[in-house]
Amino acid sequence: MATMAECRSALDTLSDNLAGADGDVRRAADLDRSLSCHIKDLDATFTGRLAHGRITVLDTHEGPPRQKAEIRLAMTGDDLVDMVGGELNFAKAWASGRVRLEAGFRDLLKLRALL
Question: Taking 80 as the threshold, does the pLDDT of residue 112 lie above it?
Fold first, then answer.
């Protein structure tokens, strides 16, 4: 089971990957939205912002998200680490229900380039 530190490191790596991307991925990540990532097996939530192609984690707390972020993710810590490490395909994990992504319709359309 992934630790909180490993999950935080994975989010930092994802942020770096998004910031260094170009083309459709860069355009998809160029939003300014609140973001939450609930790590189900650790029952912890990272909250922050996706802005200018980067994820900035602003807070971490126990339990589910306290407020409804504009982009909401939920998964296990192992799935987060595996996705960022390239061992788990996001689209397949999302389609199978291993990863939950909730956002407004327009944001989902824009984020589809990340899938």
Answer: no
